[in-house]
Amino acid sequence: MARSGSTFTLSGLARLGFTELRAAASALDELSALVDLDRDELVRGADAADPDAAAAGMLHVARRDPTVLAAILRDETARSLAWRVFGASVGLGDFFHRHPEQLAVLLEAGPLVPNAVTLTERMLAAVGAHDGFAASGDEFAWCSLRVAYRRCIAEIAAIDLSTPEPASRIAAVSASLADAAGAALEAALAIARTRVAEVVSREEVALTQLSIIGMGKAGARELNYVSDVDVIFVGASADEDRLDEGRAIDIATKLARETMRALSSAEIEPPLWEVDANLRPEGKQGALVRSLASHLAYYDRWAKSWEFQALLKARPLAGDSELGEAYIEAVQPKIWSSAARENFVDSVQRMRERVTEHIDPEDAGYQIKLGAGGLRDIEFTVQLLQLVHGLTDPSIRTQGTLESLDALVAGGYIGREDAAIFAADYRMLRLLEHRLQLRELSRTHLMPRTGDGLRVLARATGLAEDGPGVWAMWESVRREVREIHTRLFYRPLLSAVAELPEDQRTLATERAHDRLAAIGFRDPAGALGHIGALTTGISRKVTIQRHLMPVMVSWFAEGSDPDYALVAFRRISERLGDSSWFLRVLRDSSGAAERLTRLLSSSRYIGELMEWIPESVAWLDSNERLRPRGESKLYEEARAIQTRHSSVASALKAVRALRRRELLRTAMGAVLGTITIEEVATALTAITDATIQAGLRAVRREVVPAEDDALEFAVIGMGRFGGAELGFGSDADVLYVYDAHGVDPERAQILATKLVSGLREHLTDHRAPLDLDADLRPEGRQGPLVRSLAAYAAYYQRWSVSWEAQALLRARGVAGSTALIERFTVMADAVRYPEDVDQQGLRDIKRIKARIEGERLPRGADPRRHLKLGPGTLSDVEWLVQLLQLQHAHALAELRTTSTLDALSTCVENGLISADDAELLREAWLLSSRLRSAITLLTGKTSDMLPSDRSELDAIGRLLGYPDRSASAVEEDYFGATRRARRVFEHLFYG
Q1: At a CB cut-off of 8 Å and minimum separation 6, what does 363 contact?
Q2: Distance between CA atoms of 824 and 811, rounded to whole angstroms?
């Protein structure tokens, strides 16, 4: 339905984006008449963010002077620009209302934004500048400058708004806006010289050098449409024989103040923006203008870390270019050495946090610039990476955020994917900020809070179809930016690199050999060879390793074996080839690199396994992935392996790989402190259980034919394996039992023997040995390897001696027939938990214990250093607990456990041992267990002897959490704990 007297249909206007349809139709009718243009032609190409505002703005201008606007609207290209400009910026519409003649800029706008030279020429021409002096110093000159500046901004905006993908031109638009600000400052300085020359001789003004240094976004050429322009003023005399420096600084100060007034003071034509000089030395309290020497003296003595971060963006913006370049050249070394200051990284991180903390809570969710996930997150991240690494890498000493991201990617300091996301999000955030500021030509960084505001923003940016869409995009970008910022900005490597002295940040110097020797490498020449292999070349991997290596070498040196650590790291790196995730994890994760160096430099056991399982590096980024996976998950994976493989060999090859992987995971967690010694024992036992179970299933499938399937077979865990108290390198003590269950007895024995042979063959692993030790079987090594359940029962009933009943205290079913395991357990219970205690048997146990202490120790070994058989060590605690179990477990069901520590606790609860004595026994048992595992982790070999070598003891101490150089402390703690435990043992065991 057409409005009466109007040819504009309301539905047609709605399709163009108008919302106040009747008011718009009326305004367009009037505008059409004022510019004498056909109504249909007037709205042709009316593509505007806010068509209602565009129509109202143009009508406002036409009512004052329709002449230029009519010419604009008759030109198809200019008409399209007019709709876009008036629809995006009420502020520019007001400018054109004040100065209708300036609309001609829409006829002159080309495809490219104006460059710095063109903009400066226009501004200086507007004030009639000649030889640095404006034609006039009055307020009219100020207004001329401001009008010329806004005309340039209108041209930039017209080009910006007509770009199909405006986010892609953010860098060019921002640079042009910064160049316009620089040109305005240049013209304002020309006016200032003319004004100051009214009170000071023109000659003195001409001899006064004033350089205006752009800071922040102006310095980096990434300015907004409306923003404070941060500057620093540097003054000097061009000829000190004719004008001394003190006088020159006084005049320069007058020039600076007048320059600021020309742009910021109230006048007929509104101010442009505030010239903010608060980044100068001492801030608002400091002198407005200083000499170069005064600046440098301040930076050398008093400047804080944030001031060097601010200088990162500094460039000469206006005024004396020679003086400006001298200033930039002089401060460069100070900027790039600032990261070496104490706690530099922490101070930058804290400064970013303070910015966030001071945001008004009501604005926090709308802040594009300062809020979490906003522009500052990107800028601070990029600047911190530059400052930390820029001391030794001039290639990243760039200013703009986007060009700096490109440089950081090229240098390998940030991943390509993260950088691409950061760059895309930065452009989007800047586009949002630009369009919001254009709206009223006002300084704002807040997302709209109304549906109408969001709708206009969506149309202005082209980033979404509607208001909810642009808000959803903004929320998504915020989350994305915050995640990457948090990961990179708090990267531990940053602090580590910053703390390295400058001469230690590279490893290619002549002094590298001496430095490696000094920090603990035993073979510095060999180490340099490995470093060279890791850092020579032009690939991205080599580039990243070149950055990582100085810090990693210093971390390697903090461990007990830096030479081995470096070799292991090289092997892992070479095995992973060009896997992008590997170096990304080391560079970007929260501590993976430091954790890796700690593991490799403290544990050959881990290093050797990691060489075969290099993908384990990825676990270092998550504590959860360093925790044992649990018995049920291991069981499920082992079962799945069996279903995927048809042959025993291939299935058990996969099972062995599973075992090695989980041993490595447990070892890494133990060294890094994510699991306790009790959790280590549980995990190692579960891994061994799952391995034997999977092995038995696979071997049985091949060995036992279908017609003999009734044969029952089981593996019984004994010793520390049965007690679920395994350590790294522990043997798995076992018994093998079968029940013919209808199968011919002779054939059953043959099949059972084959099952044992198959298990021992296929579970043999030279990389992570698994010794299935059956020496605790009846008759020991002289007895058959596998017996029937009936044979076990007959033997224990007729022939067994006291130590065999004692050994059965740790018997636990591990794998095979559950029914058979239950029957074996019932049989074992009758032997190990006797109703009538055999006193002679107890005396035999005590005699055997005494004999073992004298006979089984290695020849020449110090008994006190033997962790298993030495006084007060594992065997003392275990034999004492087992003696009490033999005496009391029949009456006390709680004592019927295979766990030493659980049984010890039960003894306390039932008054068999005092709590104090039990604690001494527990302390010695745990410490001996931890030391045994630590020795295996350190050396990759199993040993029961506490080493006497001080460096080995120190390394073992580090694994147990002692500080450096704690060899004596380790010995003292061990000897003290075992001495106290031995006194308790002798009192309770021998009476």
Answers
A1: 371, 446
A2: 9
**314 φ/ψ sector (left φ>0, alpha ψ -120 to 50, else beta):** beta
Sequence-distant (6+) residues with CB within 8 A of 262 are 141, 142, 145, 187, 188, 191, 192
Whether the CB-CB separation of 139 and 266 falls below 8 Å is answered with no
Per residue in 955-980, pLDDT (tens digit) is: 999 999 999 889 999 999 999 999 99
End-to-end CA distance of the chain: 112
Q: 12: pLDDT confidence band, cut at 50, 70 and 90?
A: confident
Q: What string of DSSP letters covers 664-721?
A: HHHHHHHHHTSS-HHHHHHHHHHHHHHHHHHHHHHHHHHHS-GGGTT-EEEEEE-HHH
Q: What is the rounded average pLDDT of the residues 772-776?
A: 93
Number of H helices, E strands in the chain: 45, 10
Q: How far apart are CA 709 and CA 229, in angstroms?
A: 87
pLDDT at res. 618: 92
CB of 907 closer than 8 Å to CB of 881: yes
Strand partners, 291: 235
Q: Detail the DSSP E strand segments found in 740-811.
A: 772-773, 786-788
Q: Residue 329, Cβ neighbours under 10 Å: how many?
A: 10
Q: Model-level pTM greater than 0.90? A: no
Q: Please tell me the predicted confidence (pLDDT) of residue 3.
A: 39
The pLDDT, as a whole number, for residue 8 is 67
Contact 216, 273 (CB under 8 A): no
CB-CB contact of 103 with 61 (8 Å): yes
Q: What angle do the packed helices 375-389 and 416-440 form, to 10 degrees?
A: 130
Q: What dihedral angle (degrees, nearest 10) is formed by the CA atoms of 43, 47, 49, 51?
A: 10
Confidence of residue 925 (pLDDT cuts 50, 70, 90): very high
Q: How far is CA 455 from the centre of its chain?
A: 36
The pLDDT value given to residue 280: 95
